Amino acid sequence: MPIPGEPLPGDAPSADPLGEARSALAELLTDAGRRRKRFSPMMERAYREHMLARARNVMRANTLRVAVFYLFIGILTFEYVKMMSSTVTGNFDLILWTGIYLGGALVMSAVTLSARKPALHRWYGYTVGLSCYLGLVGLTVTGAAFLSPYLNQQSTYIVIYLYMIVYILSTLPLLTNIAIGVGASLTSLLLIHFGGLSLDIVMFAQYAGLSNVMGVAIAWMLDHRDRQAFLQERLLDIEKQQLNLLSQEMARLSREDGLTTLANRRYFNETLAREWAVAEREQQPVSLVFVDVDHFKPYNDTYGHLEGDNALRAVGKTLKSLVRRPSDMAARYGGEEFVLLLPNTDQEGAMAVAQEVRDAIDALQIPHRGSKVAKFLSVSIGLSTLVPGSDNSISTLIDQADEGVYAAKRAGRHRIRAFHLLKSRSSAHPE
């Protein structure tokens, strides 16, 4: 079955990778009997990294609590060992206990350091595994070395407790935990035997064997639970990504023209209002360039509406390519009419952009047999520039640019008209 992030050989790129990943995760969640078997190598690595990261976070968050607890246990057991040590054993048991306690502190310090230092994070799993192994072997062997039979017996309980810590809290892979637990038991048995220490083989087999069996069972159940939680967390992350993408797509559709992918009229109006406010505050000019496709109805009648749509797309793509500053905007104003918003652009700059637009549309050379102006698709352009003030408004800017378009049409189309020139040369021919 497909696993998230691992496309099958020969498959084409998925149109909806998040949807496929979600389906794959949902299938794994409902297939509890084969969940472990069906974790891909990639997902298994992600799961292991997730578990180790969680363990490091827990260790970092509880470092002080663990240190205080360990210190409390040390004070408590020190007095207990001192009290249980007989005059025959002298200080040997107390010295041995001190060695065990300091060794445990050293092991815990190594684990804590690898959890807290980012440079050592990659070694955290190895540090935990080695610490668990050395802790089990060290405590089992030194526990057998106590001269006091009572302390010798009590140390076995601590060893059992340590076995449970290894299997339950180490967050290492189950097979690694088994290797540590069984390996530590066999190593301890050999060291005790060749070290000449006293050992009740039957009791050792009972508590070591039972500890490993119980530890494996508990670790398997915890691993099963953690894998399910991991899958659910990933599923929630994917659903969150899908919702974010859907929200972004809805926002895009709400401000984009479906045919040309330019800004639509509503988004243009919102942007114009925002830029107008900025220009009013900074007393900077705002320019509008209205672009109207000449004789577009005859074009549709001659070539059909599909070709008409293609022509509008070509015009829109051209306008988008001429928008170079982040604050500039190209929008479809309606039908065959487009608009360029040019904040902080004076009349001369707007005229230069308008000429670029006209030349770029001409360069497309889209055939237009129905045009009375040229053999190819052409545009009429009107522009206006204002510095926002008390004597004008956004409507003034739009009306003036629109008037420029009508003036260009009256002059024979395929023209550029600036509103300020219309005021002073209302009877003149186009420049």
UniProtKB/TrEMBL annotation:
Q: Could you tell me which residue ranges the GGDEF domain spans?
A: 284-421
According to its UniProt record, which reaction does this protein catalyse?
A: 2 GTP = 3',3'-c-di-GMP + 2 diphosphate
- Which Gene3D superfamilies does this UniProt record tie to the protein? 3.30.70.270
Which cofactors? Mg(2+)
Report TM segments: 64-82, 94-111, 123-147, 159-192
Molecular-function annotations in GO: diguanylate cyclase activity
Could you tell me the EC number(s) of this protein? 2.7.7.65
The cross-references to Pfam families, in alphabetical order and at most eight, read:
GGDEF
SUPFAM superfamilies (alphabetical): Nucleotide cyclase
Q: Name one GO biological process term.
A: negative regulation of bacterial-type flagellum-dependent cell motility
Question: Keywords assigned by UniProt?
Answer: Membrane, Transmembrane, Transmembrane helix
Q: Name one GO cellular component term.
A: plasma membrane
What is the protein name for this chain? diguanylate cyclase
